[in-house]
């Protein structure tokens, strides 16, 4: 197989004597070398090198216009880096100086005229084989370099992935710490209220007028504890993909009345305005969706609105468009900075994430709302400006009628 490859090599003969060229061409053809070209003019060598791309050059030294040494000097600038081009010098100059100069100028081998054709054939074969091995080595090196580059790129990508994984793990650790701090605070605080004031209620020396206050505090603490447990259960169901969606027909005004009944008194207690806006929704509109999940989403948004609003109002709006129910909760509270708007939907996140933050709560409300909406095929987003309030918008697919169906 190698012999076949060698026989297909390009061989260029450079000699000013036609007789020498004829002898070499005939011999090479008899040996099976079919790609042979020749020139008597050494000035043509550079051009022929570019056109013919020889694998071997048979070069005479003593020629008009340019001698063999000058030809080899010109070729040095043409031969690509890391390329082995064998040059067999065939000359009548048998001096030691000529041989040394030829081999130091770029010649690979040296024979004097008159030469033995059998020896010429062996020298040619050896030089072509050396070029073949050099090309094989170069190709293997290229393959290795490509593999090294590929592996280096993979390692760089792996390093990037590892860095991301490290950052994710660190974020997870921070989240775990936040979770532990949060759950500890949000469970211990109402429990302390329940247990502490329960003991006071059991104290026979507690005055009757004090018991009413203590019962109210216990009721608030119980509601807060129940909400905390409910939030942790909801986020667990969402995270595990076990949240169930149960669609049914219901009057939208039922949800609206429940919202008014629960949240208007809370707003009045903080001296906040509270209103409902029904943009294009009739009072008898029937929605086919999961009523409990809809109420839960709105409740989390209104709870946040009331929590973060000291003065002004909270407004809840409904609109029907393109087979979707659109809702909004607007407040005039503290607002959310632009850089914080990207994190408020993450678990356990408030804009103030410190342990001494001014507002109680698990920080799960918005992440629960977003998780439920993703399950419903909906979306949620916000518009806010620091110090000027926030508006949360959400929508999800639903069907509507004007009377209940069976």
Report the count of strand segments.
13
Number of helices: 10
Full CATH superfamily name of the largest domain: Histidine kinase-like ATPase, C-terminal domain
Distance between the termini: 84 Å
Radius of gyration: 45 Å
The helix/strand order is HEHEHEHEHEHHEHEEHEEHEEE
Q: What would you say the CATH architecture of the largest domain is? A: 2-Layer Sandwich
Give the percentage of residues in beta strands: 15-25%
Which percent range fits the helix content? 40-55%
What is the number of domains? 3
Strand order of the largest sheet: 2-1-3-4-5
What about the largest sheet? 5 strands, parallel
Mean pLDDT: 87
Please give the CATH class of the largest domain: Alpha Beta
| Shape estimate | rod-shaped
Contiguous low-pLDDT stretches (5 residues minimum) are: 350-359
**Structural class determined from secondary elements:** alpha/beta
Tell me the CATH topology of the largest domain: Heat Shock Protein 90
């Amino acid at each position: 197989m190698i012999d076949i490859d060698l026989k297909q090599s390009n061989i260029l003969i450079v000699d000013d004597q036609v007789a020498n060229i004829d002898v070499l061409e005939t011999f090479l053809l008899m040996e099976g070398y079919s790609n042979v070209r020749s020139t008597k003019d050494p000035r043509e060598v550079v051009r022929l090198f570019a056109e013919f791309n020889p694998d071997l050059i048979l070069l005479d030294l003593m020629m008009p216009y340019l001698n063999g040494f000058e030809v080899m000097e010109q070729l040095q600038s043409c031969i690509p880096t890391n390329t082995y081009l064998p040059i067999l010098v065939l000359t009548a100059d048998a001096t030691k100086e000529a041989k040394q100069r030829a081999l130091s100028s770029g010649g690979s081998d040296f024979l004097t005229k008159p030469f033995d054709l059998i020896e010429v054939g062996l020298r040619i074969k050896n030089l072509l084989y050396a070029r073949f091995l050099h090309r094989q080595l170069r190709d293997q090196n290229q393959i290795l370099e490509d593999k090294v580059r590929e592996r280096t790129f993979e390692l760089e990508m792996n390093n990037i992935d590892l860095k991301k994984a490290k950052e994710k793990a660190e974020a997870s650790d921070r989240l775990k710490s936040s979770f532990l701090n949060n759950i500890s605070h949000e469970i211990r605080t109402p429990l302390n209220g329940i247990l502490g004031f329960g003991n006071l209620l059991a104290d026979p020396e507690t005055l009757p007028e004090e018991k009413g206050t203590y019962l109210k505090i216990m009721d608030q603490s119980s509601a807060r504890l129940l909400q905390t447990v409910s939030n942790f259960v909801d986020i667990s169901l969402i995270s595990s993909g076990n949240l169930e969606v149960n669609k049914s027909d219901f009057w939208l005004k039922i949800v609206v009345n429940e919202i008014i009944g629960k949240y208007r008194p809370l707003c009045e207690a903080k001296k906040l305005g509270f209103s409902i806006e029904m943009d294009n929704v009739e009072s008898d509109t029937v929605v086919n969706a999961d009523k409990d999940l809809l109420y839960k989403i709105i409740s989390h948004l209104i709870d946040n609105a009331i929590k973060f609003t000291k003065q002004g109002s909270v407004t809840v709006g409904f609109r029907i468009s393109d087979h979707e129910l659109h809702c909004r909760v607007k407040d005039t509270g503290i607002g959310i900075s632009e850089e914080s708007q990207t994190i408020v939907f993450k678990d356990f996140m408030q804009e103030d994430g410190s342990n001494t933050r001014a507002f109680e709560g698990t920080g799960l409300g918005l992440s629960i709302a977003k998780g439920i909406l993703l399950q419903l095929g909906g979306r949620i987003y916000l518009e806010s400006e620091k110090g000027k309030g926030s508006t949360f918008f959400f929508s999800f697919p639903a069907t509507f009628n004007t009377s209940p169906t069976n």
